[in-house]
Amino acid sequence: MTRYVGAIDQGTTSTRFIVFDRGGHIVASAQREHAQIFPRPGWVEHDGAEILDNTRTVITEAMQSARLQPRDLAAIGITNQRETTLLWDRRTGKALHNALVWQDTRANDVVAAYAARGELDRLREKTGLPIASYFSALKLQWLLREVPGAADLAASGEALFGTVDSWLVWNLTGGARGGVHVTDVTNASRTQLMNLATLDWDEELLREFAIPRAVLPRIASSSEVYGIAGDRLLEGVAIAGILGDQQAALVGQTCFEPGEVKNTYGTGCFLLMNTGTSPVRSQAGLISTVAYRFGTEKPCYALEGSIAIAGALVQWLRDNVGLIERSADVEALALEAEDNGDVYFVPAFSGLYAPYWRPDARGVIAGLTRFATRAHIARAALEATAYQTRDVLRAMAQDSGIAITELRVDGGMVGNEMLMQFQADILGLDVVRPRMIETTALGAAYAAGLAVDYWRGREDLVANWGVDKRFVARMSEERRVALCLAWKKAVERSLGWVS
User: Fold this and answer.
1) Which residue in 316, 291, 441 sits closest to 385, CA to CA?
2) Global pTM value
């Protein structure tokens, strides 16, 4: 009997279920978007129940499309939007509030108080993270403070916290009828509540954010059997892999050697560099995080640079401004301009993330003249992603002391060849697009498959990886330097907008 591995890929804008074969090829796939909820400026929420319903829908659609039964799956893995924070009632299974999305900035006033005391980096030694509204701890603190009765329920263990992986596993393994409350080390490392050295919840950090331990899931490895799905759609299938989305992409790109770097171009942009079995403490505005842990092996760590707005800027041009009808139209429009016409777009819609960490920044379009057209603005929007990527890669090289030789890329934007060529040009490095660009889901499938011996080891995964196209830098160094200096000026104009 032919068997496969499934992966739930629960992202910021949609949920997918993809079934892979042993060669890492897609056998079946389905996708569904969910609503983006903006109650106030800077506040971003998702409906956890909608995400769960969509997950069940895409599982059904994908399995039916390939005429698969649960018995055809050796295991399933889960990869998820990280930091997004849910709190739900253990008895009823109902969320106590909409999920607070990783982009949400409602805790910025708390961050500002830390900044005023010069304490933004006070927890870096333990967590690898600066204090920021990006991570889960301040989001959970807000929920416990603002949702009536939530603090008492959490203290008694009747309310449960989780990132989206925990929410899905708990529901798929029985929910209120005995669901498994678990997360993996990669997601736990993004809460700002886990100690990077011990890989456990840290009592000092729990006191810092007033989080009761009873509300937290068990921390497990990224590749082990957490439980058996009781949901009829997957009944009897082992849930055996969990990875935060960017770590999943690192695994899907088989970046298993120190110094290997991948960038995922999605709603945001996320670069991870494998740093081996010891965390590297950043001095250049990056964060240290867990890359993965397979079974009982030593954990592998990574340096990460997070960019809040990448593909979301194209969506903004489509939905808020009406510059394009479909996201795919942006490349053709940008190519109508020979160059950017000295127009630069800094998309600091919710501040600037790595390597700046400036929540006071806001979006600016700089360099406008009567010469500028909608094509120049479209081009500047795409180039913004490449400039931000360069800023992060330079910080990675500085922190790690490793010369980066190429950038592996994946995600929804890598089909945009104008962007990929400009990325290579502005980096002065090869940009490598793999044959399989659905690396996030593939990484989750790999983690699950390794746990049940569907794949024998990393060598099987490396053998599956192959190059679709290599983009080679063509830009002169003089031109590259001039463009990057102008970008830096535009970034400076975005800073300090919010007092």
Assistant:
1) 316
2) 0.87
